[in-house]
């Protein structure tokens, strides 16, 4: 598989590197140059940034998505995440994810930064909630109900499991 490395970081601040899916139906902007790397589930581009690109169907680079849904399966809010990010905790509008061996927090504004995992971690309460068919999550789609570490409210998150 192919991965490209892109640098969107300024010289003043070092940003972590994250993978996004590559959509081969679109041309890669000429300003992006990089080196090859691999991913077991498709082609990825490695970007270096503090803000994940928004999800746009058909765009050249595609982040993953984590959706919060209500009991009827309606989407309440959506976070974009790097490829292979695993949800760990939710605190209000901030989603904590594990990516490789590090923990990051992602905001609804697509900001991402290294973070410490909250003391009270999100635990799966009911792994049997349904993945709404309208989200087209495919074979890797899962829904888990978790407890918000700030409010204590139960929250249903729908996301793709990490492929391998």
Short structural summary:
With 164 residues, the chain is an all-beta fold. The protein has no helices and 13 strands.
SSE map:
Blueprint: E1 3-7, E2 17-22, E3 44-48, E4 61-62, E5 64-69, E6 75-81, E7 86-91, E8 94-99, E9 102-106, E10 112-114, E11 124-126, E12 141-147, E13 154-160
Parallel strand pairs: 1-3
Antiparallel strand pairs: 2-3, 2-4, 5-6, 5-13, 7-8, 8-9, 9-10, 11-12, 12-13
Please characterize this protein's 3D structure.
The protein is mainly β. The protein has one domain. A hairpin with a 2-residue loop joins strand 7 and strand 8. The N terminus is likely disordered.
Give a count of the beta strands, DSSP E runs of length 2 or more.
Answer: 13
Number of helices: 0
Helix content: under 10%
Q: Give a quick account of the main beta sheet: strands, pairing sense, barrel closure.
A: 5 strands, antiparallel
> Which structural class should the secondary elements be placed in?
mainly beta
**Strand fraction band?**
35-45%
Main sheet: which strands, in order across? 6-5-13-12-11
């Amino acid at each position: 598989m192919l991965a490209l490395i892109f640098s969107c970081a300024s010289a003043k601040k070092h940003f972590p590197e994250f993978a996004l899916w590559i959509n081969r139906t679109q041309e890669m902007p000429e300003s992006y140059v990089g080196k090859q790397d691999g991913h077991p589930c498709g082609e990825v581009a490695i970007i270096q940034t503090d803000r994940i690109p928004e999800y746009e169907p058909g765009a050249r680079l595609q982040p993953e998505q984590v959706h919060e849904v209500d009991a009827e399966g309606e989407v309440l809010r959506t976070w974009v995440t790097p490829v292979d990010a695993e949800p760990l905790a939710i605190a209000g509008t901030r989603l904590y994810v594990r990516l490789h061996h590090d923990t990051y927090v992602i905001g609804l504004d697509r900001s991402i930064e290294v973070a410490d995992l909250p003391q009270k971690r999100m635990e799966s309460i009911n792994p049997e909630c349904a993945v709404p068919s309208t989200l087209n999550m495919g074979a890797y789609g899962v829904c888990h109900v978790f407890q918000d570490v700030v409010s204590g409210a139960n929250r249903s998150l729908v996301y793709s499991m990490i492929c391998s």
